[in-house]
Amino acid sequence: MRITVTVDGVDYSDEVEPRTLLVHHLRERLGKTGTVVGCDTSNCGACTVHLDGHSVKSCAVLAVQADGREVTTVEGLAREGRLHPVQQAFHRNHALQCGFCTPGMIMQAIDLLADNPDPDEDEVRHGLEGNLCRCTGYQNIVRAVRDAARQMRPGAGPDAERVDEAKLVGRTPTHTGGGGE
Amino acid sequence: MIPAAFDYVAPTTVDEAVRALAAGGEDAKVMAGGQSLIPVLRMRLAAPTLVVDLSGLTELTGVHDDGDSLRIGAMTTHYEVQRDPLVREHAGLLRLATDTVADPQVRHRGTFGGSLAHADPAGDLLAPALALDAVMVCAGPSGTREVPAAEFFVDYFTTALAPDELLTHVKVPKLTGWGAHYEKFNRVAQAWSIVAVAAAVRVSGGRITAARVGLTNMASTPVRARAVEEALVGQEATAEAITAAATRAAEGADPPTDNNADAEYRSHLARVLTERAVTAAVSA
Ligand SMILES: Cc1cc2nc3c(=O)[nH]c(=O)nc-3n(C[C@H](O)[C@H](O)[C@H](O)COP(=O)(O)OP(=O)(O)OC[C@H]3O[C@@H](n4cnc5c(N)ncnc54)[C@H](O)[C@@H]3O)c2cc1C
Ligand code: FES
Ligand code: FES
Question: Closest ligand 2 atom to the C-alpha of A37?
């Protein structure tokens, strides 16, 4: 089948088999390898992308189901060489070790902040329930998401993906390593 | 893994979908949110020759006020159910149970109808549907028919739907002003229920005047804890009365034994969780 999908702002038209999973289409056809596959059961969340603005596990969506729709991957977050505030917060708070879960964590964190711009710790943990990390123990991931929420305030809202450059300048890093706060 | 090859159609009306399903024969499969079906296809536990994707059937989405009941489209997502004001007001139990399903990504795609049609006994929306006396509206080549929840769930992963039928809507009688709670027991995040209890109660003047209790994963289908319901009705809404009624939670259930829990432990959980669920529902 012929499908046209807008990925990170660019339209791609391709011939795909109906059985092709969106994540495989992104990685193998479009070269968008920032989105990774971590499991066979749609449990791990590593493959999380946004489909028309909502987070989905791209291993649990067929590529044909994205026809005519808009996909945002972790590769589409930076603006003019500057990382998205959630990416910056992950960096600043040392919210990754091997980094395999990170693309999915970041995409889900952005979805969470669009729904709830000021989540408490419990809400962050629930919001990231579909994303597994085998390395960090989650502490710094939770910290990073709350830090990002503070940086993105006010008005993260559903526009969280549209980064306001003005808010990003003149910010000093708070944490550079792990350990307690 | 990658699913086995299949043909794919995305009809835009129920009639088209029913015709596609009939034309596809035995090896055709309906896809709703795909959140159970796609993992199953990936693991090659199923290999349909035709997938009929319902996601273009806008007529099957949304929650409508039908007077005494709500009419919920089978393709309404968990995310939409969680946020729907009619569900919140008239079917609070359904919202609370939906909050516990899977994780945000899965709830963005997974549907109410898909969960019911999938009929996993550990699924969290079956016991609420049963407790709320929901009615399933099914469409097939010879028209539509209505099946009460009590007859819809037949066995593990088996419903009263014929292979050429679709679930199109679910009628959920309004329980406006009732207290409700869904008490789910599992061990890790985004996990299915080991046992869960769906409770809705109506309290007036401190007395329980009506009670519905449904159990998740206590048999091959969801079951009603009728003995608990009968023991509650007419009682003062006190801790003693609830504790006494909850001891009868596992009566008539037929809990499975699996890697998570044996039957005896599940019966124990049913009693403990029923007490918690009813206590929370009474004060909700
Ligand atoms: C990681 C993960 C965790 C999960 N955890 C939970 C949980 O804790 N609790 C829970 O309840 N669920 C859980 N689920 C399942 C989730 O709720 C699914 O949304 C649901 O089981 C199926 O809904 P769906 O719309 O995705 O259906 P699909 O996957 O598309 O379909 C499921 C089955 O139902 C049939 N079907 C679907 N719709 C219809 C219809 N309208 N008419 C006829 N047949 C139909 C399909 O043919 C298929 O056999 C989880 C899923 C995942 C991936
Ligand atoms: S690869 Fe999609 S959830 Fe694990
Ligand atoms: S950093 Fe290794 S899985 Fe999360």
Answer: 1
Please check whether residue B2 lies inside any domain of the structure: no
Tens of pLDDT, residues B159-215: 999 999 999 999 999 999 999 999 999 988 878 999 999 999 999 999 999 999 999
As beta bridge partners, residue B199 has B181, B213
What domains appear along chain A, each with residue ranges and CATH number? 2-76 (3.10.20.30), 85-171 (1.10.150.120)
Number of structural domains, chain B?
A: 3
- Asked whether residue B115 is assigned to any structural domain, the reply reads yes
Question: With the C-alpha atoms ordered B226, B231, B234, B237, is the resulting torsion angle positive or negative?
Answer: negative
Which residues does B18 contact at the CB level (< 8 Å), separation at least 6?
Answer: B139, B140, B141, B164, B165, B166
Instruction: Give B27's contacts (C-beta < 8 A, 6+ positions apart).
Output: B47, B48, B49, B50
Domain containing B33 equals: 7-53
Closest-CA residue, ligand 1 atom 37, reads B114
Alpha helix locations (H) across B4-125? 14-24, 37-42, 78-83, 85-90, 92-99, 104-109, 112-118
Model confidence at A170, in pLDDT bands (50, 70, 90)?
Answer: very low
Answer positive or negative: Cα dihedral of B174, B229, B219, B274. Answer: positive
For a pocket test of ligand 1, which of B6, B9, B30, B40 has the largest count of ligand atoms closer than 8 A to its C-beta?
B30
Above 70 in pLDDT, residue A82?
yes
- Residue B187: count other Cβ atoms within 10 Å of its Cβ: 8
Residue A39, chain B, CB below 8 Å: the answer is: no
pLDDT at B34: 98
Please check whether residue B58 lies inside any domain of the structure: no
* B268–chain A Cβ distance below 8 A for any pair: no
CATH code, B105: 3.30.465.10
Does a structural domain hold residue B149? yes
Tell me if B1 and A55 make a contact (CB, 8 A cut-off). Answer: no
Size of interface A-B (CB pairs under 8 A): 88
In the chain, the amino acid numbered A81 is G
Are both B214 and B134 inside the same structural domain? no
The pLDDT of residue A166 is above 50? no
Same domain, B152 and B70: yes
pLDDT of residue B284: 85
To the nearest whole angstrom, how far is the Cα of B246 from the nearest Cα of chain A? 29
The string of pLDDT tens digits covering residues B211-242 is 999 999 999 999 999 999 999 999 999 999 99
**pTM attached to this predicted model:** 0.94
| pLDDT tens for each residue of B124-140 | 999 999 999 999 999 99
Residues of A in contact with B35 (CB under 8 A): 42, 60
